[in-house]
Amino acid sequence: MPVDVLVGLQWGDEGKGKIVDVLAPTYDAVARFQGGPNAGHTLTFDGVKHVLHQVPSGIFHPHILNIVGNGVVLDPVVFRGELQKLTARGVDWSHNLYISKKAQLILPSHRALDRISEEARGNTKIGSTLKGIGPTYSDKIGRVGLRVGHILLPDFEARYKEAVAHHASIAAPYKKGLEIEEFEADFFSAVEFLRTLQLADTEYLLNDLLTQGKRVLAEGAQGSLLDIDFGTYPYVTSSSTIAAGACTGLGIAPRHIDKVFGITKAYCTRVGSGPFPTELLDEVGEQIRQAGREFGSTTGRPRRCGWIDLPALRYAIMLNGVTELHLMKADVLDGFAEIRACTHYRTATGESTPRLPDPGELDAVTPEYLTLPGWHSDLTQLTDTTQLPSNLLSYLTFLEHELQVPIRIVSVSPDRVSTLYR
Ligand code: IMP
Questions:
Q1: DSSP letter for each residue of 275-293
Q2: 42 belongs to an annotated ligand binding site
Q3: Would you name the residues annotated as active-site residues?
Q4: 300 is in an annotated binding site
Q5: pLDDT over threshold 80, residue 226
Q6: Are 413 and 45 a contacting pair, CB within 8 Å?
Q7: CA of 301, closest atom in ligand 1
């Protein structure tokens, strides 16, 4: 079966972009199926770091089609900026980039609503990236959204005005104006640019590829614990971030899905609000943040850091049907005398459970840890798994035993070349 799906198993920022870039040469197409400019996929090669937000991470491989699927919410201004940056770096995306006409458009007023609703939440803020994600998906589900295909219609401007009027009516009870006038000219010029791109019924494009026996890699954004249904609701994003989302977000039938790659860090991070039982609020957390350069690639916010959380990973593996794990940023733990892994939670009633309790109960759980010895080597110089230090090998064996899924890739630096296959 020719579709493999790659998903984050934590709260995003696991390193999905790097792995998509590394695996892309073995596929004919890479397709994004959800999320939007809230994502920040970082790829590093030839000494240069690239951050992609909406463009699929296969874009640096000219023979691979890159598809922005119908499940994505697209900000034309951000998208144009990304493509201009790629052009400046000599990447020609003109022939291999397709955008679904059914993807939803993020308008300046969606961003305004994101800001207004976050301000109104006071100390229950989601910690949104303020890119307009929630309001755009709300309009989609409410059946009032504007799609990319609408920009080709003669009445697009009238539809836009109707949408903005609707958004102004949502903002009115907050006693806030949308204040979008200064962004509108830029939005329309970005829409003009979007009209020049390859807008397509990408579900047909993808299914035609599958009929020809071509291979597709579906690229997830954010992480399973931010999933709208199964994440730490309400502190989640507004899309289906799990593997099943690839079917509805691309128009691919479930029978086409083969492997599911689950991406996890060797530890855990989270940006924004919400429960994070293994969070380290001490100097160890700070050490991880500095060593892992854990600052948001989209917002620059410091990421919350903590130990790996196995109840949460088991849950994500179950939801996604993960067939192989890719362990990222193992090198960040270089030099730690001890490494801890949360194997169970102790609940408020005193029960020890290997499962993830309901999000509402997560603030009250206490993680139960197993401590393992660290390794004292510089992993970033390794080129082969035979060189892995024995304490890291023990950590990998321990994780595989706990999670019952093989770890096929160990990543030991941001660079493409630092990808060790087991
Ligand atoms: P939104 O998707 O911008 O509405 O943000 C909702 C929550 O998801 C916030 O906690 C964000 O920090 C988090 N989030 C959204 N996108 C990402 C991502 O790509 N990486 C990590 N966290 C994200």
A1: --TTB--SHHHHHHHHHTT
A2: yes
A3: 13, 41, 140
A4: yes
A5: yes
A6: no
A7: 12
